[in-house]
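Input chain follows. Return structure tokens only.
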Amino acid sequence: MSQETPTNPLVPIAIVVSIPVLVCLIIMLTDAGIERSLLWSAIKVGVVLTLIGGALSFGASRLAARNSQH
């Protein structure tokens, strides 16, 4: 019998979320009417929001693990 390694459930979600983000970035890079400062600001805000979301998700998973042990 073959042993299947469990896949991370975040991988399909990350792919689905990253496709529209990448398309928006490509449009912002190729459109001549969009200023580059707007592009870099959008990237910075995206990174900050991703970090905040990751931290909140990590904290929630730790709280859930701690509550399920008791």
